[in-house]
Write a structure and sequence with these properties.
The complex is a heterodimer of chains A (225) and B (489). With 225 residues, chain A is of the alpha/beta class. Helices cover 40% and strands 21% of the residues of chain A. In chain A, helix 2 runs parallel beside helix 3 (59-68) and helix 6 packs across helix 8. The longest helix of chain A is centred in the C-terminal third of the chain and has 17 residues, at 187-203. Chain A is elongated, with a radius of gyration of 18 Å. Chain B is α+β, with helices and mostly antiparallel strands. Chain B has eleven helices and twelve strands. In chain B, strand 4 and strand 5 (165-174) form a beta hairpin. The chains are: A alpha/beta (225), B alpha+beta (489). The A-B interface holds A 8-12, 14-16, 18-19, 22, 32, 53-56, 80-82, 101-106 and B 269, 272-273, 276-281, 283-285, 287-288, 291-292, 305, 309, 438-444.
Chain lengths: 225, 489
């Protein structure tokens, strides 16, 4: 999952990036509203974390312009202002949720997960065939057997499982699993897919990830024998 | 019985209470009516008495003529009062002598001796006698009742050649018509008075009510206002009168209040942002840090980073407390005579490390050995704040100049830098709390925007004038004007 943090305080942006990357997220940072808005419009992010008081363009304005452009990416705003009207104003501008500074990092993670899960399913039910993924503890099970994955492998598998039954193109995978500093050499995906397949097969889950030649990859529940 | 005296007291109290809560329009009408009633009563009374006086004067003249006529008789002129008394007819008019009935429309003449016995009288008097007042020695005019109607009469003493009063001549004329006129006049005045007063009260109340209606509007607007809803303004009346001034004064007051509230609100928001940001950074960094075991070096850098943030926070709290202390209570200044150049040198020594770090040079131009009146501690703090501010916003390698001049009986101390400068439209706000040219409030540049508002506060406390001028990208100059001290030998 790829996140964009729009925050002018380097201290806050810094620990957010460190902490979130440890949680297997790909994280980009924008230090002002204008560049943040540009990045959000160009790249496809799974979630935006926006500070309300930022230079060039306020967080509210970033939020409004994104919604106006039809961008429905979940937005979580950070605010030091804690009056009711500020919060109502922020949510009405198109934000999905807010968190007050100073906040608990665990709470931020939980709120991010809320925004990322589809159809409000419980977090532990992320699964495809006999594969079960726990995005909170970052554990992957094949039946009862736990599979140990590297952060990138885990992020790749999580993305594919969240988008199961859909073809994931290489460029989309790059956008959602790797951050902006990654030069778009898509062949690296094939390498990670190979690693992933090997680990899954060792645990007994074969043919989970199928290749669509020249396009990308797909996980099909029906395709698993 | 004991209750009785208490009752009127209570009543009068409630009257005063009622009076004190009386509406303004009623009070205006009340006062106006009372005053006018008094004036009208005075006018009516004086008119009445003047008319009365004129009428009686006319009667008195008439009687006088009569008296003259009688006294011009030859008997009188020879002072033969006996003969005069024996005159058959002293009638002046052709009265009906045989009439038994008194004709009050005619004149009456009566002659009495000194003891009051009637010596002779006109036939018009018939069997009646005129009133006689033996105590009146001179010539007198008075009213009396004669036969059920009013008469005006004169009593003239008849004095012989030896100077002895032999008797009195009494002449009377009826005044019935005049009395009717006077009574009518009095009745008209008496009945018209309450009508006039009542009409006046009603009209005054109406006019007063109409003219104070704008006040009612002011009251209702003020009632709707609250701390959170200060953007309402008083309606301006049509006429440019006192009420117009009242409304405009109140509006100006509201404007200032709203500004003050807004500044207070901004201050709280800024303070909360400035305090919460380092707190959030430290908290977040440490939370991420303890999530899993890490290298020793990583711990060290992160903890150093947190300490830096905490120091920044401590600095902010210090400044906020200082500002609060100078603002809330009366601070006693300890003003004494100080040698300006020595203090400037001391402060420059203190800020030299940070200037050295950016290789900024500080030059001082001591024109003379200036003595000023200031609080040494406060003055040093002011100077340090201005100098650190100058260092903070100056490019590396530039220079800061301090110039001291003696102008008239003041010492002018200016501190100029070659820094980024302040845009002209923001120059007014530099002394406001949390003001920063860079509005994003990014902590990268370092300051909180409190230093200069502390400078301003300290300057005000010591009666030092502080001003600022600036050119963007050229530099900023802060000027302090201090009272000079001259020592007489």
């Amino acid at each position: 999952m790829r996140l964009l943090i729009i925050e002018d305080e380097p201290g806050i942006a810094g620990f957010l990036k460190d902490g979130l990357e440890e949680e297997y997220f790909a994280v980009d940072i924008a230090y002002d509203g204008k560049s943040g808005l540009d990045m959000a419009l160009i790249n496809e992010y799974d979630l935006l974390i926006v500070d309300w008081m930022i230079p060039a363009l306020s967080g509210i304005e970033v939020c409004r312009q994104l919604r106006k452009a039809g961008n429905l990416v979940p937005i979580l705003f950070l605010t030091a202002k804690d009056t009711l009207e500020d919060i109502v104003f922020g949510l009405d501008a198109g934000a999905n949720d807010y968190i007050k500074k100073p906040f608990e990092f665990e709470e931020l993670l939980a709120r991010i997960r809320v925004q990322l899960r589809n159809n409000n399913r419980a977090e532990d039910s992320l699964s495809a065939g006999s594969i079960k993924i726990n995005p909170v503890s970052h554990q992957v099970f094949c039946g009862l057997l736990e599979i140990t994955l590297t952060p990138k492998e885990f992020a790749l598998l999580e993305y594919l499982v969240r988008n199961k039954e859909r073809v994931c193109t290489r460029s989309r995978i790059i956008e959602h699993v790797w951050d902006i500093h990654f030069d778009s050499d898509t062949s690296v995906i094939d390498v990670y897919i190979t690693f992933l397949r090997r680990k899954l097969e060792a645990a007994g889950c074969e043919n989970l990830i199928q290749t669509i030649r020249g396009v990308g990859y797909i996980i099909r529940e029906s395709g698993i024998s | 019985m004991s209750i009785k005296p208490a009752n009127p007291v209570k009543k009068s109290r409630s009257f005063f209470k009622d009076f004190s809560v009386m509406s303004l329009r009623n009070r205006i009408a009340f006062y106006y009516t009372i005053t006018t009633a008094f004036l009208i009563a005075m006018v009516f009374t004086s008119i009445y008495f003047m008319v009365e006086k004129v009428v009686y004067k006319q009667f008195d003249e008439e009687i006088n003529n009569e008296v003259e006529e009688i006294l011009s008789d030859s008997h009188i002129s020879t002072h033969d009062f006996k003969g005069f008394a024996n005159l058959k007819n002293i009638d002046t008019d052709d009265n009906d002598k045989n009439s038994k009935k008194i004709n009050v429309d005619t004149d009456f003449v009566e002659l009495v001796n000194s003891s009051g016995e009637i010596m002779n009288k006109s036939a018009s008097l018939s069997w009646c006698a005129l009133a006689f007042n033996p105590n009146q020695l001179g010539k007198t005019y008075f009213n009396s009742n004669f036969g059920g109607s009013m008469v005006r009469q004169a009593q003239v003493p008849l004095i012989n050649t030896k100077g002895i009063t032999e008797g009195y001549l009494i002449v009377a004329v009826p005044v019935k018509n005049a009395i009717i006129v006077l009574n009518d006049l009095r009745d008209i005045f008496f009945f018209s008075f309450p009508v006039i007063i009542f009409t006046l009260f009603v009209l005054t109340r109406l006019i007063a009510g109409k003219s104070i209606r704008p006040i009612e509007k002011v009251i209702s607007t003020a009632e709707q206002m609250s701390q959170t809803n200060l953007d309402q303004r008083m309606p301006m009346p049509y006429h440019h009168d006192e009420l117009y001034r009242l409304s405009s004064t109140m509006n100006a007051l509201l404007e200032r209040m709203q500004d003050a509230f807004q500044r207070e609100k901004d201050f709280t928001a800024n303070a909360s942002h400035e305090l919460k940001t380092p707190l959030a950074i430290v908290k977040g960094t440490l939370e991420v840090l303890v999530r899993k075991p890490r290298e020793r070096e990583y711990y060290e850098t992160k903890i150093q980073f947190c300490l830096k943030e905490l120091n920044r926070m401590a600095r902010l709290i210090d400044q906020l407390l200082m500002l609060a202390r100078y603002e809330s209570s009366k601070i006693n200044t300890n003003i004494e005579t100080i040698a300006l150049s020595r203090h400037i040198d001391n402060v420059i020594e203190r800020v030299r490390p940070s200037a050295f770090a950016k290789s900024i040079s500080i030059t001082v131009d001591h024109a003379e050995n200036a003595l000023v009146a200031a609080d040494p501690g406060m003055f040093d703090m002011m100077l340090e704040n201005i100098l650190s501010n100058a260092i903070k916003y100056s490019p590396p390698g530039s220079s800061i100049g301090v110039v001291i001049k003696n102008i008239a009986d003041t010492i002018v101390c200016s501190i100029s830098d070659q820094g980024i400068g302040i845009p002209e439209e923001k120059l007014n706000a530099v002394f406001e709390r949390f003001f920063r040219v860079d509005e994003s409030r990014n902590s990268g540049t370092g300051g909180f925007g409190l230093g200069l508002s502390i400078v301003k506060k300290l300057a005000d406390l010591q009666q030092i004038k502080v001003s600022v001028s600036s050119k963007e990208n050229k530099g900023t100059t802060f000027t302090l004007i201090l009272p000079a001290v001259t020592i007489n030998d």
